[in-house]
Amino acid sequence: MGKLVVLTLLGAGLALIGERLVAFRQRINAYREVEPVEPQNCHLIEGLENGAEDIDILPSGLAFISTGLKYPGMPDFAPDEPGQIFLMDLNEQNPRAQSLNISDGFDRASFNPHGISTFIDKDQIVYLYVVNHPHMESTVEIFKFEEQQRSLVHLKTIKHELLKSVNDIVVLGAEQFYATRDHYFTNFFLAQLEMFLDLHWTSVVFYSPREVKVVAEGFSSANGITVSPDKKYIYVADVLAKNIHVMEKHDNWDLTQLKVIQLSTLVDNLTVDPDTGDILAGCHPNANKLLLYNPEDPPGSEVLRIRNILSEKPEISTEYANNGSVLQGSSVASVYQGKLLIGTIFHKALYCVL
């Protein structure tokens, strides 16, 4: 009798694991192949060889690019090199990527930049907020941008118990921002188990010097985050659920979900086209190829444009798609006056004139 119970429990356990494995492979699009959609006027950006995980473009056309991310479970082609912030002036005829110097006193050796967001104050001073993972922890670094010197002056490091496993950030005021947590657990094994079991325990956190709180939760893996041009709505990408959440922002900074845009691809970072209000999403068409990286069969890239996101029937189109032969693991796309930048987690970056 005892053996029968053991065998029954073992069989039930194996069946559960098998069911979870099948569901997980479906969630990460393990069997999907990419149909190419490639604009004619595109080229790889010289000097960006170790990813361009996030991009934020100022109204002036200056683009900040975070590079060199070391992220657990992802490929890393330069494990001994610290991360950097690059700048491109998209007003130039042939824009080039330039590494920005960072002021003394900041630990550049452990710099591991992830999501970024800019804020311009009433005096037109530009501040760059950077999600940083020094020694695989999570902090938010605040820099002041010195345009003439093409440099960043480090001002402050923000840490908080709610700011764990931070992925992306959107700044709405001086030291006021929303941040996404892409995992509940910080332990690598538990984080992988959380992802495998699809626990939906991740969240969006609001931070200010006066108050820090969870304002939205129940995501499978909250990832990219951005704000509508009128500052009334917050858009959150849930990468493993393959969707975008449209959230209404309240005066007390709380968020209320209005709708969910379901997609067929894993959505990473989000940006807004300043001319149209359209959402651009850097996406992973097949995340299995990210998790089990094979240079002979690399992960592809995909960029979607979502028009009229607040309407009953948003229009979704593909701006770019490649099977990995040119660009691997796209994480972000950002546009400025007909010029498109596409970044990746660990690979290269692409510049296109639309």
TrEMBL record:
Its cofactor is Ca(2+). The active site is at residue 114. Ca(2+) 2 binds at residue 54. It holds the Pfam family Arylesterase. It catalyses: a phenyl acetate + H2O = a phenol + acetate + H(+); an N-acyl-L-homoserine lactone + H2O = an N-acyl-L-homoserine + H(+). Residues 1-15 form the signal peptide. Its EC number is 3.1.1.2. GO terms for cellular component: extracellular space. Glycans are attached at residues 269, 323. Keywords: Calcium, Disulfide bond, Glycoprotein, Hydrolase, Metal-binding, Signal. Glycosylated. InterPro entries: 6-blade_b-propeller_TolB-like (IPR011042), Arylesterase (IPR002640), Paraoxonase2 (IPR008364), Serum_paraoxonase/arylesterase (IPR051288). Ca(2+) 1 binds at residues 53, 116, 167-168, 223, 268-269. Binds 2 calcium ions per subunit. Disulfide bonds join 42-352. The keyword DNA-binding does not apply. One of its GO terms (molecular function) is metal ion binding. One of its GO terms (biological process) is response to toxic substance. Belongs to the paraoxonase family. This is Paraoxonase. It comes from Vicugna pacos (Alpaca).
